[in-house]
Design goal:
Number of helices: 13
Number of strands: 21
Strand order of the largest sheet: 7-8-6-9-11-13-14
Distance between the termini: 26 Å
Structural class: alpha/beta
Helix content: 10-25%
Largest sheet: 7 strands, parallel
């Protein structure tokens, strides 16, 4: 994503400026003169050599990821960052520091909290699970038909690199892989609120942000006659918690999660975020200070190394293209960065030396968002340079002039944690929670929040969100079906498929979608100004709005695999 998505309002006055870090000392730790940094080594530098340089600069290595040359370091030297950046074997260092700003709500995904509902969306044909009738996305990509051929293989693992996954949801529980799931992002109290446990490391199987559980449900909620089902309802879901409860994603947890995914043989990883604090990381932006330039070079290098490592270990990488309604090949001036450490300032973005990570990183399948009509969502990023495919991500204002315009059903329904719904306000002007302490849904959100319970009293909750964060898991689910259908036994009892073949088959079987006419798409009827105008370049086979097309689960599992065929 290209904007913060957190649904929580953090009530503290300060947040941590974890400028390129995140797996640091919890914010409630005792005061100390020591500070925490993330340090990245230059290319070709041995880990021990980098450690020696860090020590010479006055730092102590706390943890290390040798595969990507990244180190977490503590130091009590005021000049440590400058000394580390000056070392010829190190790219740069970035410090964890506090500022006086709260995290911001995402204007796209949280539109569902504030937009008036004109009425319930039209009902669709009944499917296997009770709420599947509301899942227009599954119908659009023919996932309902695909599962009759291939519902997913339990041996196929899909990593949800996100805010966590609520494994207590009855639709998540049957497919949740406890043995592989990990938390790489300890709570930071100034960002996330009070720690739920003394270690500040939330237990696996929990999600205090909600975003990761929503993503996980779209990928692989079980088709069990309860709640709703996912694109690949029989695959295994692996929690890779790399995002804070409050919705921020810092370099250390993300890189460590990707390295772990590669080491552990995860088949597919979904990434619906961007790495803070820079919307675009630039190697030498004149608008940035030398220190900020060094920090961004470190982020670029570490992320690219981690993505390449995971890919080379067999991980298919899928990422949200972002919600900034811009052509990523011709980016606008960035006015939102940094979102930590200092006030944001205008940064002209040079497309040749700036990257939106991870979606613009190597081997990442970039996914744009469409609404129920197939129209590009007003918020979705696009562009022939970065896009791969399109998928259902929701579009609140789709269907202008019809009864479904601006109704909850234009968004994407998926699983959501009860705890978060009990904390989320009904809207920015109505502070009452969506769900009360007894688990009852407030009638004012009855068209956007749903509850399903079993005879034994076990309940699951579901809500609507929209964004490229919701599109990406549709594509990740199809990728998981491809691995399930065409994967082969590997190694010591393993199972998988080359990510290059997965990507190729995903593109080749996507449903081609031509650019709209006129090609310059405007959203005036939907209440959007000229900044949302988007020009669709390219042909039917490949264009800037849809890439190779809208992912098609049925075609993906029905079409024979053709190794080395081009999309």
């Amino acid at each position: 994503m290209s904007k913060r998505f957190t649904a929580r309002t953090v009530a503290t006055a300060a947040v941590l400026a974890l400028t390129a870090t995140g797996l640091g000392v919890p914010a409630n730790a005792a005061p100390s003169d020591s500070r925490t940094f993330t340090v990245v080594a230059e290319d070709g530098v041995a880990a021990d050599t980098a450690v020696a340089a860090i020590q010479a600069a006055g730092g102590t290595v706390v943890s290390r990821s040798d595969e990507v040359g990244m180190f977490q370091v503590s130091s009590d030297r005021a000049d440590f960052a400058a000394r580390a950046t000056a070392a010829p074997t190190l790219i740069g260092a970035a410090e964890q520091k506090a500022i006086g700003r709260k995290p911001k709500l995402d204007r796209v995904e949280q539109e569902t909290l504030t937009a008036a509902s004109a009425g319930a969306a039209a009902r669709r044909g009944a499917k296997m699970d009770p709420l599947d009738e509301k899942l227009w996305g599954l119908e659009m990509i023919q996932a309902d038909k695909a599962r009759k051929i291939e519902p997913g293989d339990r041996r196929v693992t899909v990593g949800v690199l996100d805010t966590g996954v609520d494994a207590s949801n009855p639709d998540i529980a049957p497919n949740f892989n406890w043995s592989l799931s990990r938390n790489f992002a300890p709570d930071l109290t100034d960002v996330d609120g009070p720690c739920e446990v003394s270690s500040c490391l939330d237990p696996v199987g929990t999600d205090d942000g909600g975003h990761g559980t929503h993503v996980a449900g779209t990928i692989g909620a079980a088709a069990n006659g309860f709640g709703l089902s996912g694109v690949a309802p029989n695959v295994s879901l692996v929690e890779l918690k790399g995002g804070q409860d409050s919705g921020y994603f810092f370099l250390d947890p993300v890189v460590n999660a990707l390295v772990y995914a590669g080491r552990s043989g995860i088949d597919v990883v979904n990434m619906s975020f961007y790495v803070d604090p820079w919307l675009y990381n630039c190697s030498a932006n004149p608008a940035d200070s030398p220190e900020d330039q060094a920090e961004q070079r470190a982020i670029i290098k570490a992320m690219k190394r981690a993505l390449i490592f995971a890919h080379n270990k067999g991980v298919t990488l899928v990422g949200a293209l972002g919600n900034n309604n811009e052509d990523l090949g011709a980016p606008r001036t960035d006015v939102t960065s940094p979102d930590y450490g200092a006030a944001p300032y205008p940064r002209p973005i040079d497309n040749e030396s700036c990257w939106d990570l991870p979606t613009e990183g190597p081997h990442v399948i970039g996914v744009s968002s469409v609404g129920p009509s197939g129209k590009k969502s007003d918020f979705s990023n696009y562009g022939t340079e970065q896009i791969s495919v399109a998928a259902p991500g929701g579009f609140a204002r789709d269907g202008f002039g019809t009864p479904t315009y601006n109704t909850p059903g234009n968004r994407i329904l998926s699983s959501y944690p009860l705890k978060v719904l009990q904390e989320e306000p009904i809207s920015v002007t109505i502070p009452d929670p969506k769900v009360d302490a007894d688990g009852n849904i407030d009638p004012r959100v009855a068209t956007s929040v749903f509850k399903q319970c079993k005879a034994n009293g076990e309940c699951g909750y579901y809500t609507y969100l929209q964004g490229t964060s919701m599109a990406s898991p549709h594509a990740a689910g199809v990728a998981a079906l491809i691995v399930s259908r065409y994967g082969k036994p590997q190694g010591r009892g393993g199972f998988g498929m080359s990510p290059d073949l997965v990507e190729q088959h995903l593109y080749r079987t996507a449903a081609e979608h031509a650019c709209p006419e006129p090609r310059l798409q405007q959203y005036r009827n939907e209440g959007r100004d000229e900044t949302y105008d988007a020009y669709c370049a390219g042909g039917v086979n490949f264009n800037g709005f849809y890439g190779y097309g809208i992912v098609d689960a049925y075609a993906a599992v029905k079409t024979p695999l053709k190794p080395n065929a081009r999309p």
